[in-house]
Design brief:
The chain is globular, with a radius of gyration of 17 Å. Helix content is 36%, strand content 19%. It starts with 12 loop residues before the first helix and ends with a strand. By secondary structure, it is of the alpha/beta class. The chain has one domain: Rossmann fold (3-Layer(aba) Sandwich), CATH 3.40.50.
């Protein structure tokens, strides 16, 4: 029986690159657990007209207090049995909060585009959870990388007011202006994710807490401030960053 602790345990691209050598075996491979490294609340770096007083009254709001979860996940490595998955995290969040959860596999660009179209039609959903391998500015599928701007085009304005969680290593370890453009074009209320490679269990723990804390709040600034204060050690260890509308 393979020991899961001996397998690649990150959500960075390194594990994926080592697996890409066998394309046929990797048709269903993709996600790499990410981590939170110091949850940071980012302001719009391009807006120099706001006074500090104005900035204080800007509040990122989601559409609903309780937000059903739409998750896209690809496989983490080449194992088809005993494979890693974020599904137990989703099911616990679902049962603790009485939510609906839609969890779809996604291993190609075509699947990514198709599944996002399906999610756009769902009423009551407010969290898009992207569980993939990642690198700065990229989602990594088994055979191709997807640039943040390509994802932006796929989302369009169909996820306006949603929270997008990048459960990927380093995808949002980019300049604030680039992430701000992503938010402005899509109209999402919050982008949150990891700025460095992280351990699977650290990421799983943090994501379970995050999905729980996102419930019961429309004021996402308040949620983020309280989450960061309550779980500062996980935030520091994993390097989480957030940008709010």
């Amino acid at each position: 029986m393979p020991n899961p602790r001996m397998q690649p345990t990150g959500r960075s691209g390194a594990a994926l690159r080592s697996a890409r050598g066998s394309v046929a075996a990797l048709r269903n491979v993709g996600l790499c657990v990410g981590g939170l490294e110091g949850l940071q609340l980012m302001r719009n770096p391009l807006d120099t007209t706001q006074s500090s007083e104005t900035a204080r009254i800007l509040v990122a709001r989601s559409k609903n207090y309780y937000k059903d979860i739409a998750c896209l996940e690809s496989l983490w490595d080449t194992r088809l049995e005993q494979r890693l998955t974020v599904e137990p995290i989703l099911r616990l969040a679902e049962r603790m909060n009485g939510l609906r959860v839609a969890h779809l596999t996604c291993n190609t660009v075509e699947e990514l585009r198709h599944n996002l179209r399906l999610f756009r039609r769902k009423r009551g959903y407010g969290i898009l959870y992207l569980a993939f391998h990642g690198r700065p500015g990229l989602l990594q599928l088994p055979e191709v990388d997807v640039e943040l701007e390509e994802l932006q085009a796929m989302l369009g304005r169909g996820f306006r007011g949603w929270v997008v969680h990048f459960g990927t290593c380093e995808t949002i370890a980019i300049k604030g202006g680039r992430l701000r453009r992503f938010m402005d074009h899509t109209g999402i209320a919050m982008a949150v994710g990891y700025t460095k490679p992280v351990d699977w269990m650290d990421a799983a723990s943090t994501e379970l807490l995050l999905l729980d804390w996102l419930q019961g709040y429309k004021n996402l600034n308040a949620m983020w401030r309280k989450f960061r204060a309550r779980h500062r050690d996980l935030v520091r260890i994993t390097g989480m960053k957030a940008m709010l509308a």
